[in-house]
Design brief:
The structure is a single chain. This protein is 32% helix and 19% strand. The chain has seven helices and nine strands. The longest helix has 26 residues, at 190-215.
C-alpha cells in the first residue's frame, strides 16, 4: 500500500464500510484493556510476554517492538507477568509520553494508546472531544474461544495476507525525499507521523474489536523512516516502483521486481515476530501538495489484491 497524508481518513472510513458484516455483534475480550511497557528491549521477552497473556486468558491486540504491548489482561495474566521481572509499567490509564523518560519510538507508540481515551483522533486540526470508557469485560459464552487460528505451519511465500484472522505483522514505512534527484517539497514532522500512525492504529484497532475471539486479531508494527532521491507525491502511480525499489533496497532487499522484494520483507516480518500474516504500508507526506494526489491523479492510495 502507498499513501499520501492528505485525505488519509478516507481510507480508514473505507475500511469500516467494507467491514460491515450482518449478524455479527461487537466482540468482548476478557480482562481490562491495558498498556504494558517492558524494562528491556529484548525481542524474546516481547514475544514471551504476548504468549503469557494469551495463555492466561487475555489477548494482545497491538505490539510495538521492542517493548510496548496493548491488549486485555486478566488477573491471572497480570500476576504471571509480574513474576517475570520484565515489567516496567502496566496501566489502564493514559500515560504522558515525556521526552526524558521515553525514547522517540516509545513516544510514538504511546500516542496510539493515549488516543484510545478520546472519541475523536487527536490531530493538529482538532481538539479531543469526550472520553471512552474502558471497563472490564468478560468473554462471550462461545465454544472454542481459545482457538487462535494458528496457521504458522501453513505458511506460503506468496500468501502473506490470505485471511484476516490470527496475528499480523504490519511494516509501516515513512518515505520522504532527500532532494538528490527530484526537488524536495515534503518533509515528515514528528506530528505528522503521529497523525498517520494513529489513523492506521484506529482502523486496525476497530478490526480487532469487531473480529473478537472468533478472529483473534493481533497487530505487530515495525516502523521504518527512509529517504529516497525521488519526491514520491510528484511521481505517478506507475513511477512508484522507482522509490519503492529504492526504499526496499535500503532494507536489504535487492535484485528482483518490487512485488517479490516486498513479499520477502513481509515474510521476514512474520518470521521475526512469529505471526500468521504480514503486509507492508508505504506512506508519503503531501502537506505542501495542492491536492494530495499523486502526479497522474491516480488517487491518494491504492493496494494490491493478495498483498504484499
Amino acid at each position: 500500500m502507498r499513501f499520501s497524508l492528505k485525505l488519509f481518513f478516507a481510507f480508514i472510513a473505507l475500511q469500516a464500510v467494507l467491514a460491515t458484516v450482518s449478524g455479527q455483534s461487537q466482540s468482548l475480550f476478557e480482562g481490562r484493556r491495558s498498556l504494558i511497557i517492558l524494562k528491556s528491549t529484548d525481542h524474546n521477552e516481547l514475544l514471551k510476554t504476548r504468549d503469557i497473556v494469551e495463555k492466561s486468558g487475555g489477548h494482545i491486540t497491538h505490539l510495538f517492538p521492542p517493548n510496548i504491548l496493548q491488549g486485555y489482561l486478566t488477573e491471572k495474566a497480570e500476576k504471571e507477568l509480574q513474576k517475570t521481572g520484565w515489567i516496567k509499567t502496566i496501566t489502564d490509564k493514559s500515560l504522558p509520553a515525556g521526552e526524558k523518560e521515553f525514547s522517540s519510538s516509545e513516544r510514538l507508540a504511546l500516542t496510539t494508546w493515549n488516543s484510545t481515551f478520546v472519541k475523536t483522533l487527536v490531530t493538529r486540526d482538532g481538539e479531543p472531544k469526550g472520553k471512552q470508557d474502558h471497563n472490564t469485560v468478560k468473554a462471550p459464552d462461545l465454544e472454542n474461544t481459545n482457538n487462535k487460528f494458528v496457521l504458522r505451519g501453513q505458511k506460503n511465500f506468496y500468501l502473506t495476507s490470505e485471511y484476516m484472522m490470527g496475528s499480523i505483522a504490519v511494516g509501516i514505512v515513512f518515505v520522504e525525499s532527500n532532494g538528490q534527484l527530484d526537488k524536495k517539497t515534503e518533509t515528515w514532522t514528528d506530528e505528522d507521523k503521529e497523525d498517520a500512525l494513529n489513523q492506521i492504529y484506529k482502523g486496525l484497532d476497530w478490526w480487532a474489536e469487531i473480529g473478537g475471539y472468533k478472529a483473534g486479531l493481533s497487530w505487530t508494527y515495525e516502523i521504518q523512516s527512509l529517504k529516497t532521491p525521488y519526491e514520491p507525491i510528484h511521481r505517478t502511480k506507475d513511477e512508484s516502483i522507482l522509490w519503492i525499489k529504492d526504499c526496499i533496497g535500503q532494507l536489504g532487499y535487492k535484485n528482483d521486481e518490487d512485488y517479490t522484494l516486498n513479499r520477502e520483507y513481509a515474510n521476514d516480518l512474520r518470521d521475526k515476530y512469529q505471526t500468521d500474516w504480514a503486509y507492508v504500508i508505504y506512506i508519503v507526506p503531501a502537506t505542501n501538495d495542492d491536492d494530495g494526489y499523486f502526479a497522474d491523479k491516480s488517487g491518494i492510495a491504492w493496494a494490491y489484491l493478495g498483498g504484499p
